[in-house]
Amino acid sequence: MTASTPIHRAPDTPTARQALALAGVFQAASLVDELARTGQVESRAWETLIRATLDTNPESFEAIYGGHPNNLRRGLEVLEAVIGRKQANPVVLRYGFSLLLLMNKLRGNDAMMSELGSRLTRIQGQAEHFEATHENVIASLGEAYQETISTFKTRIVVQGDPSLLQSRMMPERVRAILLAGIRFALLWHQQGGRRWKLVFQRGALRKALDQLG
């Protein structure tokens, strides 16, 4: 998966971009739930989120998620359930909507936004030295989340297997994915996404999801 060569142009409409960004949020929510319950995640979905978090200055919108909507397939499936009012995992939905809430709090805190940006710049250097998914990079992403987003009174309480959640590198992996969710939530807002649109523009979002296949 190469971020530098997008292989699939996204439909160039604000709603399609909002749908893809929101899929990133729900993909993060889904992977947090899976990690907490099983200790495992699907590698393509995981790598897409981590690389997107590290790429703070992408050359195109598509480059953010690696050039193909299938890299966000997990999140698109959750979003389809939300938009279609179908049965969706309530824990995943809670994580997803909590990420949107935390994103709004972050947007209102200029100092924290600046601190997070500085940290990500340093972590990019780490990723170039090791690789994007190396545990040193994941540990740094997790620490960045813990020392910024986690300081808000509103927090995401992750449910799962207690022994798994306390295992080596698990807290860091969970926090790194939550940070990726924040990254996509910010992207969603930048593309014009708003909570009320999930209620009043379901038809437009559903059409965008159909186009994405």
TrEMBL record:
PANTHER family: HIGH FREQUENCY LYSOGENIZATION PROTEIN HFLD (PTHR38100). HAMAP family: HflD_protein. Coiled coil: none annotated. The gene is hflD. Belongs to the HflD family. SUPFAM superfamilies: YcfC-like (SSF101322). NCBIfam families: PRK00218.1-2. Keywords: Cell membrane, Cytoplasm, Membrane. It is found in: Cytoplasm; Cell membrane. It comes from the Bacteria. This is High frequency lysogenization protein HflD homolog. InterPro entries: HflD, HflD-like_sf. It is a peripheral membrane protein.
